[in-house]
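Quick look at the format.
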Amino acid sequence: MRNAIPNIGLLMAFEASARHGNFSRAANELALTASAVSRHVAALEDRLGVPLFVRHKRRVMLTDAGKRYAQRVRLHLNGLERDTQEIANSRAQGYAIHLAVVSSFATQWLVPRLPAFAKLHPDIHVHLSVRSEPFAFEESGFDGAIYSGDGLWAQTQGQRIAQDGACIPVCSPAYAEQYALGAEADWRHLVHIGLESRPNAWRDWYAQLGWDYSVQASRGPRYELFSMVIMAASAGLGVGLVPEVLVQPALDAGQVVPAHSHTSPGTQSYWFSYPTYREPSQALQAFESWVVAQSQQSGL
């Protein structure tokens, strides 16, 4: 039952008025009269039982409830417009899939491989948006997700596409030369770059070597993304501890070098998943087959 959903005309009048802050400009956009827009907004307020605007002569200002509701309505209207355009133009322009991805894996591993997918499937357009936390598919508008974790999310299906692999300490070639890094190097004065979500990574690495984890080692900068850690290490800001699957392109390009031969075992994997409550499209299935094949070719 959809009885709780207001008429889309009311929602469009509200969203346009919220965006313009004026009923007349909203009316011009919607090809209505200003009085019609005003009536639509009033009807919506009556329906909700909540004031959405404060009226000031020719201007209107959103209430706090109106601001929150406008953001949500705009999101859903934009999604509905996008989906409608895609369906209407699908025969001429191909098909689109919308994926939520973790940033570092997408930038370091996935995106450089997407030209190969585009060559195989020129009629499928892949849209990527960063999501670092788990979410509910039914509320997101995403067709699938690539994320880091211990397994598939609840009420999803899919498969593992890559393992973290060993975590490698890396730095720029100049930094390695400056501190004469090697098996016998003195690490007490090095800057240790870490990841916010893995605060104990360097401590564990030190423990595996039987070294004392010094106060100096714990004071290094912390970044939100592994891609930031890699960039900081390549810029000569210190030594970063990064999964092999993410840092391999930078190693191959000579932007960074191993700072030590010891590596830490990976603890997580990257997964491709989509909801079980709906049948995946042929485009999504084609992407799944391709991304799994890519991971196998990469030895992940």
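Next, a different chain entirely:
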Amino acid sequence: MVDGITAKGGTATGVIVDVTRREDVRRLTDTAVGRYGRLDVLVSIAGIMAVSPFDEVRQDDGDAMVATHVTGLLNGIGAAPPVCRRQGSGHFVTVGSTSAYVVKAPQAVHAAPRRR
């Protein structure tokens, strides 16, 4: 993706991040500030889906999903706002799953924390 952007004259920096690792998300925000001088927006869109019938839940898949969706979000909340506060501006955008609104039977575990 970085190569495609730069080939067309744009500027991009790639950072491999596991959102479940606090230090990875901090490295991401530090890279943005170091490379571009600021962090304007952090978009939280990482997600995985544990797909199985509700009564056949695969606990390891569920644990990984919670780590990605919840811990990953919290790691972003821990890393981005302090940077934005120091610079006086910035945005934090969280993208939710369509499973919050439409639940298919094998996605019940994935959708359970999102139902209102």
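The chain has a mean pLDDT of 87.

See the schema section for token definitions.
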